[in-house]
Design brief:
The protein is of the alpha/beta class. The protein has helices at residues 45-57, 88-99, 116-125, 153-162, 182-185, 191-194, 201-210, and strands at residues 18-23, 39-40, 43-44, 62-65, 79-80, 104-108, 131-134, 146-149, 177-180.
Length: 212
């Protein structure tokens, strides 16, 4: 979000923003191996993200994970399962908004290259909007698994879940959404790298090459 895009009136209170890492999906393309535990140049993706959240927001993120062994992955993190199981990405986001609690910046745990600077930018934008989300070249045109969510998104997400609309952006029409334009996203790096997902063994090889 560029300075010119922000309202001129500074909000009276800047809420404390928390972080959440979403360990969703069955990792079927990785043979069931937990994607966030994969090593990128000797460091787990999960650890890379935790460090980025600490640098950006000054505290440990929440870990949203359904696996029974999740508490052992990072004993210093609070781990919570989905409030509503079987509801995919939107169910994970809804859990993070309620449990973190919002305002919260959420990042998927298979995205090793999300920097602290982008996390901080997304969090700061929540002073003016209910959703702060980067534009991207992905199928949705935005990156819901690397975005900031305010408290108002909780009821809006719940309504979408209740009506069976499980799209990660299904609730956007009910809240204030600010899209971080591509030009602003590029201040933090190449979007192809920023939002790279490690979903397969080939992706892992590619990510290690990108980390050089």
């Amino acid at each position: 979000m560029s300075e010119s895009d922000r309202p001129t009136d500074r909000p009276p209170d800047r809420p404390t923003v928390t972080g959440a890492i979403l360990a969703g999906g069955g990792a079927t393309r990785m043979g069931g191996a937990p994607k966030g535990l994969m090593l990128i140049h000797g460091r787990r993706i999960l650890d890379r993200l935790v460090d980025a959240f600490i640098e950006a927001l000054g505290g440990l993120p929440l870990l949203v994970a359904n696996a029974p062994e999740a508490p052992a992955w990072r004993p210093d993190l609070r781990v919570v399962p989905d409030r509503r199981t079987g509801f995919g990405t939107l169910g994970g986001l809804h859990t993070a908004v309620l449990e973190a609690p919002a305002p919260v910046v959420c990042v998927a745990w298979d995205m090793p290259f999300v920097p602290a600077t982008l996390i901080r930018e997304l969090g700061e934008g929540l002073a003016w909007a209910d959703v702060v989300i980067p534009a991207s070249g992905g199928r949705r045109g935005v990156e819901p698994l690397c975005a900031g969510y305010g408290p108002a998104t909780g009821p809006a997400m719940a309504e979408a879940l209740d009506r069976g609309d499980l799209r990660a952006i299904a609730f956007h029409g009910a809240v204030r959404v600010r899209v971080l334009p591509d030009a602003d996203v590029r201040r933090f790096g190449d979007p192809e790298r920023l939002f790279f997902n490690v979903n397969t063994a080939d992706d892992l090889v590619q990510a290690n090459g990108m980390a050089l």
